[in-house]
Specification:
three-stranded antiparallel sheet, single chain, mainly alpha
């Protein structure tokens, strides 16, 4: 009786061990390798983080996460001023600072969580609109408050939206051209080349990826 019990226990333990080894091999080695191979072959860009590279092949960020383009923070400033030689993204307290467009430091992600009639939010929007008008007006091009699109003064739900509207990109063209010593036509062509249409022709809205646009701008200004 005792021998039978030991024999049965040994068989059960042996079967369990074999099952463990087989499942470990299949689920822990074969399956992950197979999935990795498939996605690397079919979706290489997405599987590697949707990286954006400059003309020298250096990774400057991901096309899925927005970045800020600010000047270094000065003494007495609560927040850094925007670096006006770059196209600016949507306003957000959740974006990492990036003054050289080569890397970014993600701080946080989130919305303002304020209602549309919140007085503080309304003041933020008014201040943002004033800044957009001031920053993007040049000697030969004047921006009117009515020219400012909604995405120029409001953040996205995540605070990490990598895109702006074509209207906001076009509003910045004259300022970017002047700051970089470029012809307006050159910058207009740059924006047009980096404007994506609706997905499948009917989903979403036309958009411009700010990091892709600024990377192309840097490639252009650096020859």
């Amino acid at each position: 009786m005792t021998n039978n019990t030991v024999s049965t226990t040994a068989r059960v333990l042996g079967a369990g061990l074999r099952a463990l080894l087989v499942l470990t091999l299949v689920c822990g080695v074969i399956y992950p390798l197979a999935v990795t191979g498939v996605v690397q072959a079919l979706f290489n860009d997405q599987a590697n983080g949707s990286e954006i590279k400059d003309k020298e092949g250096r990774v400057v960020g991901s096309s899925l996460i927005g970045q800020r383009y600010d000047l270094p923070l000065k003494d007495g400033e609560e927040s850094p001023a925007p670096d006006l030689k770059w196209f600016q993204p949507r306003p957000s307290n959740g974006l990492g600072s990036n003054s050289v467009n080569t890397q970014y430091d993600l701080i946080l992600s989130g919305a303002t969580n304020r209602s549309g009639d919140n007085e503080e939010l309304i003041q933020w929007v008014k201040d943002a609109k004033t800044a957009v008008v001031k920053d993007n007006s040049t000697a030969t091009y004047k921006v009117k408050p009515t020219d400012v699109p909604a995405d120029a003064v409001t953040s996205s739900g995540s605070g990490l939206d990598p895109h702006i509207s074509p209207a906001y990109a076009k509003l910045q063209i004259h300022r970017v051209a002047e700051e970089n010593g470029l012809d307006v036509e050159e910058v207009e062509d740059l924006v047009a080349d980096h404007t994506a249409g609706r997905v499948l022709g009917f989903m979403g809205e036309p958009r411009v990826n700010v990091l892709e646009l600024n990377t192309a701008l840097r490639n252009l200004t650096q020859g």
